[in-house]
Design goal:
alpha+beta
């Protein structure tokens, strides 16, 4: 039995048509499956929770949707040891599928991979915990503080994305909104503690991204060397330089060539604790966590079993 959690409202209305094709393929192959359709924000989390509580030892969940739906499902799962997850991407960013090297534009091929999978591929997940409240949220792609969080959590409501999606240039919306936000946001003074090392201070911090995979924001390679199964998070920081210089360096970031550039700091770790002089937005996989000034990022090694 496969449990399909289907976001029929994604991809600017195209997801429903894609799901109809997938459903037809399942019926033709006589696959035993059940469909669950989230009705509101947060509903996919509840659905995943309920499925995880079923009295079965081998539960297969397939997400038909984008990164936001995947994030909700990850945070709804109560027992990862009994879950195998498949993904058929129908979102606009699809960074989780990009990180997993799944077919992002061929739903038939993505389904075939799932149905043929032995379910023996394990990957890491990340967890962000707000230290003031002890509230935590799991992420599959990334979690961030500052600019990337402000952009990532606001992009779905941005008018520019809707316009660019209409002319099939939706991938540019992240870049447009990033540049706009860069010159209107404030910067932060932070203390960062990597693993058991002594804390390091960063002034004029623009963003910090804790990456499980290489890219976020529809393919921006924040951490070009990140691997989703190496037992570490890859941290990308922009700090200590004027905003206009960060703007000029933005093309290098988009090409993944920022690793040795002044103003960027890349490092791997298992845990990272951030303390900031002011609150900023925190996200997990582009989903809003809240406005925080202290957070712990940590890797959960080999936590998720994938159907690939």
């Amino acid at each position: 039995m496969y449990h399909f959690i289907v976001n029929v409202h994604g991809s600017s209305g195209k997801a429903f048509l894609k799901w109809n094709k997938i459903r037809a393929l399942l019926r033709n192959k006589k696959i035993d499956f059940k469909v669950h359709v989230p009705q509101r924000v947060g509903h996919a989390m509840q659905i995943a929770h309920d499925i995880s509580e079923l009295p079965e030892d081998d539960i297969k969940i397939v997400v038909v949707g984008g990164d936001g739906t995947i994030n909700e499902v990850l945070n709804g799962i109560t027992d990862f040891s009994r879950i195998k997850l498949g993904v058929i991407p129908t979102g606009s960013g699809n960074d989780f599928s990009r990180g997993m090297k799944l077919p992002r534009h061929n739903q038939k091929k993505a389904l075939e991979l799932i149905l043929k999978s032995k379910g023996d591929k394990k990957i890491d997940l990340g967890r962000s915990t707000v230290l003031s409240t002890n509230d935590s949220r799991i992420f599959g792609i990334s979690s961030g503080f500052g600019l990337d969080a402000i952009v990532g959590t606001g992009i779905n409501e941005a008018k520019i994305k809707k316009i660019l999606n209409y002319v099939h240039l939706g991938k540019l919306s992240y870049a447009f909104l990033t540049i706009q936000t860069l010159f209107t946001m404030r910067t932060y003074s932070v203390s960062l503690k990597f693993d058991d090392d002594e804390p390091i201070s960063f002034n004029k911090l623009i963003f910090l991204a804790a990456m499980n995979f290489k890219a976020e924001g529809g393919g921006v390679p924040m951490a070009p060397k990140a691997l989703g199964d190496d037992g570490e998070l890859s941290i990308c920081i922009a700090a200590g330089v004027p905003k206009f210089l960060t703007f000029l360096l933005f093309p290098l970031l988009c090409m993944g060539l920022h690793g040795r550039t002044k103003g960027f700091y890349l490092r791997n770790c298992k845990t990272l604790t951030l303390q900031s002089d002011e609150k900023s937005i925190l996200h997990t996989d582009g989903e809003l966590v809240g406005s925080v000034d202290s957070v712990k990022f940590e890797v959960l090694p080999q936590k998720l079993t994938m159907l690939v």
